[in-house]
Amino acid sequence: MKKIEAVIRPEKLEDVKDALGKYGIQGMTVTQVVGCGLQKGRVGVYRGHEYSINLIPKLKIEIVLMDHQVQEVVDIISDEARTGAVGDGKIFIFSLENAYRIRTGESGNEAI
């Protein structure tokens, strides 16, 4: 089992979610996060004064899936979230030891 964490632009969520749904991914967790990377923030103006916004709002999508699905899901997220500009996001992949479904007690791939 693997866990994918993808940090994307908020405006790309529906595109990514729809494409993952067509592939058959039904479960995911979406969290509002802030961060910085190569984008380095931006400069804002409030009441005539400039100020630096160093942390940019993003969304983090977390998906747990079977090993053989990882590359296809990474490709889907990459294709749908890409704008070609700095700040499109990152995808991280983690190995998972186990998963449990609380309601039924199932574990492993059956719990996904």
TrEMBL record:
Q: Which spans of this chain does the record mark as coiled coil?
A: none
What's the gene? glnB_1
Q: Name one GO cellular component term.
A: cytosol
Record-listed O-UMP-tyrosine modification sites? Y51
Q: Which InterPro entries match?
A: N-reg_PII (IPR002187), N-reg_PII-like_a/b (IPR011322), N-reg_PII/ATP_PRibTrfase_C (IPR015867), N-reg_PII_CS (IPR017918)
Protein name as it appears in the record: Nitrogen regulatory protein P-II
Q: Which Pfam families match?
A: P-II (PF00543)
Spell out the PANTHER family in the cross-references. Answer: NITROGEN REGULATORY PROTEIN P-II, NITROGEN REGULATORY PROTEIN P-II HOMOLOG
What keywords are assigned to this protein? Answer: Phosphoprotein
Q: What is the originating organism of this protein? A: Pelotomaculum propionicicum
Gene Ontology terms: biological process: regulation of nitrogen utilization
Question: SMART domains, from UniProt?
Answer: P-II
Q: Name one GO molecular function term.
A: ATP binding
- What family does the Swiss-Prot or TrEMBL record give for this protein? Belongs to the P(II) protein family.
